[in-house]
């Protein structure tokens, strides 16, 4: 019954093997690999794994990367399946102008977030934040409608853009300070507060739109770096995309 969930991001592939395609299933194994090293998965991390019976992935890195991962999946006898953004799934309705153009990672994370909210009996709005190579801040209303969301550059891209777009800025890592008094701290703090500022802005907007304070779920490799500087209540859920993939797979099996 084991189920392999794969999240191919802009920088890294993350995978988790679950005992069953059901929300809350036990994790049997998990790992991550930079996209440059994915051609070794079958010979390294995946070698010796208990063969998964099914898989569902989520990919924002393009068709070439997907095909490379499918080659690695030939290690096992399974049909690769990839989540695509559509008009509704997993209890979420997609409000994007062109639903299919919404990043699959955002769609799957929204479905994972909705599953979390349902499991806890939350019936108000949910703000879904992913902090990685890019940052996304997506709004779900209390009925599971995706209202829309923000895309902004991640911390790394912001700093590299400043470094390449100015003559005099070089970017050694600094500390986050309220009132930075050197260039490194000013850059690191600027990047961090650009992200927290966008999140807090969307939180206010969603609260105003729905007339209720949203819960906020945050995920992505750098979520823990941003979390300490957020002035609003939030919860880090590292597995949000995997939880979305589990919810989708369970949903599909139930149909
Ligand atoms: N102090 C920081 N604050 C916010 N973000 C940061 C910080 N330091 C690094 N980052 C971001 O973290 C990213 C790397 O994190 P990681 O590779 O774990 O993300 P990820 O969720 O796996 O990304 P993706 O899914 O896009 O591949 C960098 O691209 C950078 O933008
Ligand atoms: C925004 C990113 C890069 C975040 O990973 C990804 O979701 C993506 O490539 N999205 C497609 C464009 C969109 O979501 O509108
Ligand atoms: K991601």
Automatic annotation (TrEMBL):
Q: How is the cofactor bound?
A: A monovalent cation. Ammonium or potassium.
Q: Which GO terms describe its molecular function?
A: pantothenate kinase activity
Q: Where in the cell is it found?
A: Cytoplasm
- Pfam families linked: Pan_kinase (PF03309)
Q: In which pathway does it act?
A: Cofactor biosynthesis; coenzyme A biosynthesis; CoA from (R)-pantothenate: step 1/5
Which residues are the active-site ones?
105 (proton acceptor)
**Keyword terms, alphabetized:** ATP-binding, Coenzyme A biosynthesis, Cytoplasm, Kinase, Nucleotide-binding, Potassium, Transferase
Q: Write the Enzyme Commission number(s) for this entry.
A: 2.7.1.33
> Where on this chain does substrate bind?
96, 103-106, 183
Enumerate the residues binding ATP.
7-14, 133
Where is it predominantly found?
cytoplasm
**Gene3D superfamilies, sorted:** 3.30.420.40
Instruction: Using the UniProt record, name the top-level EC class of this enzyme in a single word.
Output: transferase
Task: Tell me the cofactors it needs.
Answer: NH4(+); K(+)
The record's annotation in CDD domains points to: ASKHA_NBD_PanK-III (cd24015)
Instruction: List the InterPro entries hit by this protein, alphabetically.
Output: ATPase_NBD (IPR043129), Type_III_PanK (IPR004619)
Query: What is the reaction catalyzed?
Result: (R)-pantothenate + ATP = (R)-4'-phosphopantothenate + ADP + H(+)
Q: Does the keyword Aminoacyl-tRNA synthetase apply?
A: no
* Family stated for the protein in its record: Belongs to the type III pantothenate kinase family.
Q: Tell me the function of this protein.
A: Catalyzes the phosphorylation of pantothenate (Pan), the first step in CoA biosynthesis.
| Binding partners and assembly | Homodimer.
Tell me what this protein is called: Type III pantothenate kinase
Q: What's the source species for this entry?
A: Azohydromonas lata
What is the name of the gene encoding this protein? Answer: coaX
């Amino acid at each position: 019954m084991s189920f392999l969930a794969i999240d191919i991001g802009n920088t890294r592939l993350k995978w988790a093997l679950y005992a069953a395609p059901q929300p809350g299933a036990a994790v049997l194994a998990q790992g991550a690999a930079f996209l440059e090293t994915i051609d070794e998965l079958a010979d390294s991390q995946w070698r010796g794994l208990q063969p998964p019976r099914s898989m569902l992935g989520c990919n924002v890195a393009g068709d070439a990367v997907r095909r490379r991962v499918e080659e690695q999946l030939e290690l096992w006898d399974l049909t690769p399946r990839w989540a695509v953004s559509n008009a509704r799934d997993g209890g979420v309705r997609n409000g994007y102008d062109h639903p299919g153009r919404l990043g699959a990672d955002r769609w799957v994370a929204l479905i994972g977030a909705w599953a979390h909210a349902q499991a806890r009996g939350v019936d108000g709005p949910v703000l879904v934040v992913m902090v990685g190579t890019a940052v996304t801040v997506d709004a779900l209303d209390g009925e599971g409608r995706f209202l829309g969301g923000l895309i902004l550059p991640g911390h790394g891209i912001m700093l590299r853009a400043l470094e390449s777009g100015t003559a005099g800025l070089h970017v050694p890592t600094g500390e986050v300070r309220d009132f930075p008094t050197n260039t490194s701290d000013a850059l690191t703090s600027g990047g961090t507060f650009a992200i927290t500022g966008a999140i807090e802005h969307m939180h206010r907007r969603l609260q105003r739109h729905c007339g209720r304070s949203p819960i906020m779920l945050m995920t992505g490799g750098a979520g823990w770096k941003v979390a300490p500087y957020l002035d609003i209540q939030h919860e880090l859920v590292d597995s949000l995309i995997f939880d979305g993939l589990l919810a989708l797979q369970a949903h599909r099996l139930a149909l």
